[in-house]
Amino acid sequence: MESFFIPTKIIFGLQCIAENHSLFRSLGKKALIVTGKNSAVVCGALDDVLEALKAEKIDYVIYNGITENPTLDSVEHGRNVFKEEMCDFVIAIGGGSPIDAAKAIAVLGINNMRLRDVFSPCFYDKAAPLIAIPTTSGTGTEATPYSVITDVKWHTKEGFGAPCLFPTISFCDPKYTLTMSDKVTRDTGIDALSHLLEGVYSKKRSNLLMPIIAKGIELVFDNLAAALDDPGDVDARSAMMQASLYGGMAIAHTGTTLQHSIGYPVTTEFGVSHGLSNGIFMKYIMQLYHPHIATEIDEMLYYIGLDREEFYAWLNEMGLDDEKLELSDEFIKKAVPEVMNSRNMALNPMQVTEKDVIKLYRDVRK
Ligand code: NAP
Ligand code: FE
Description:
This protein is of the alpha/beta class. The chain folds into two domains: about 10-175, Rossmann fold (3-Layer(aba) Sandwich), CATH 3.40.50.1970; about 180-365, Dehydroquinate synthase-like, alpha domain (Up-down Bundle). The protein contains 14 helices and eight strands. The chain is globular and about 55 Å long. About 50% of the residues are buried. Bound molecules: NADP nicotinamide-adenine-dinucleotide phosphate and fe (iii) ion. NADP nicotinamide-adenine-dinucleotide phosphate binds next to α1, α4, β6, α5 and α10.
C-alpha cells in the first residue's frame, strides 16, 4: 500500500504573494512574523508580506531573532511574543531556520505544554496556522511536517515531525532566492539533492514519489551550476526552488536517513552549514548504500544520464571533495552514539553499524 499526503496549499511563481494576498485573510487578525536578521529584508519578501497584510488590514508583530540552526531559546522567545501579543497565526520568512523555528512556535503558541515537549509530537496534535515563505532552495520545509531545532543546553540538534507541522500555505517565489550568496546557493542546493536521494535510499521509498524525485534530481543537475554562474538567472533559481519543493515532498513521505543524521554533529560541533554537512558525506553514503540498493540507485542515475563515477565527478565539480574536516578521535567517539540513536537510522536501506559510521567520519577527515 502506498499513499501521498501533502495538506499544504502551495502557491509557486513570481509575484505569488502580491497576486494571492486574499489567502492571508482566513488565518486571523494578527500575525507573528518570524525571520532571521537580514535575509527577509534583503530579498524583498518582508516588504511583500507587509504590503499584503496592509491590503488585508491584518495587524502584525515581527520577531527577527532566528539564527542558523535555530535554538530552543529563540523558539521560547517567539512563543512568548506570540502569546503576549495575542497573535492568531505565524508567517515565517527565510531559509529552513526561521521556517522550522516558526513551526515550533506555532505548536507552543496554542498548546499549554513544556518547552522541550515540542520534540515529542505525542504531546500535541495542533498548531497555529502557518504561512511559510522560503528564501533558500534547499530544505523543502515548506512542504514537510518536520522541524529541526538545536538545544544549546544539551548540545543536540534534533528533528521531529507531526502532521500539524505542515505549513498551512507556502508561497514559493523564486525572486527571493536571487540574493543568496554562492555558498548558500551551493549548500542549500546540495541539501535539496540529499532529500531527493534519500527519497530513493529510504526504506519507505514509494513508486508514487519516483516521478517527483527523478524530476527534482534532473532539475538540480541542470540548474545548480547555472545558478552559481549567474546568480540573477531567474529560470535557474526557479528550477532550484522547484527541486527543493520536490525534495520536501519526497522526505515528507520517506523521512531522511544516515545521510542526514551523520551531518548533525558536524553542524553542532563545527558550525558547518546543514547542506554542506550532507554534501561532504554524499559520495561515501552512496558507496555504502549501493551494494544493498544497486538497482534503485543505478536506475535513478540512468534517468539523468549519469553513471556513479560521473555523479561523483559532478559532486567534485561542486567543490565537495575539497571540503574535508579536522575530526579528532574524541569527536568521532562522541558523535557515533548520537548518530546511531537518531530517529533517521530506522530508515536506512540496510543495517548500518557503528563501524560504518566511524569509517564515514574517517573518509571525510583531512
Ligand atoms: P538558513 O539557516 O535558514 O539560512 C542560512 C543563511 O542564509 C543565513 O545567514 C540567512 O540569513 C541566509 N539567507 C537565507 N535566505 C537568503 C536570501 N534569499 N538571500 C541572502 N541570504 C539568505 O539555511 P537553510 O539551509 O535554508 O536552513 C537550514 C536549516 O533547515 C537547518 O537547521 C536544517 O537542519 C533545517 N532543515 C529542515 C528540514 C525540514 O524539513 N524541516 C529539512 C532540511 C533541513 P538570515 O539569518 O539573515 O536569514
Ligand atoms: Fe536537509
